[in-house]
Design goal:
The chain is α+β, with helices and mostly antiparallel strands. It folds into two domains: 15-141, Beta-Lactamase; 148-300, Alpha-Beta Plaits, CATH 3.30.70. The chain is built from ten helices and eleven strands. The strands form three sheets. It has a five-stranded antiparallel beta sheet, sandwiched between helices. Strands 7-8-6-11 form a four-stranded antiparallel beta sheet, with helices on both faces. Strands 9-10 form a two-stranded antiparallel sheet. α7 crosses α8 (197-212). The longest helix is centred in the last third of the chain and has 21 residues, at 280-300.
Length: 302
Amino acid sequence: MYEPAVPQPTPVRTLATVRSSAECRFEATFHNAPIGIAHVAPNGDFLAVNDQFAKITGHSREALLKHGFPQITHPDDLGTDLDNVEALLTGERDRYCMAKRYVRPDGDVVWVNLTVALMRDEEGQPDYFISVIEDISEVRRARTEATRDPLTGLLNRRGLADRLRETRLGAFRDEAPFALVYLDLDRFKQVNDALGHARGDACLKAATEALGGLLRAGDLFARIGGDEFLLILQDCGPDAAVQRVAHFEAAIESIQVSPGWQMGGSFGFVTVRPDDPRSDSQLIDAADIAMFAVKRARCAGR
């Protein structure tokens, strides 16, 4: 006689079971994630960090839990970080991302991409931050190498292009002019031909150091060719540019190539107002033309 199968009762998953499984998955995700994760109190103290967060920052979990993120944040990045935190606490934003630096115990610096979100309790009050970090030091290093001159450490042509765009945006925002100065070292080929490229390299470094010591906060300095340099002087009108270029000329002429042989340089500049319609390349060309006019006049006067 056929007897129908009796369905077996499905195990009932209690709320406690479901919650326990979710907690286990969360713990596994938190501790085994390939990125750094931390829970941070509203006052900045670390509440929990995973192993990857400790590995990236170079601080042990025990050490991190004794302090807060301000203690390991690079001083130059702390202000921006705290401003973003305040924006979360006031409800102005619900999350933020930034590139920042942590300082490791040995003094080395690690660059990270930081994403932070604020969790609130049932009453809507700030409870804790979830901070996620990813090590971008290699990316930053490659980007720096791509935008820097290996000999002098100055910006190269590519790096200058990026910063010139930023400068023009800042000038428009602040309604302040800036000066673009073009420098071509005089008779530099003769230095290489007569004294060798090693001496020529030394002269380029000396020029970099001499002019670098005259720059002000916000100014930019780039080497865009063999013996060609560009300087961006912030908040600098025509009269101020003339004075500063005179100081630059004196600094270059103080460099001794060899006994009885002083270095020289031809400078040309343009001042740029916030509403200047010329493109970036047109501005550089204009400064180059101004420099060439100075060089030609100097040669004609000899």
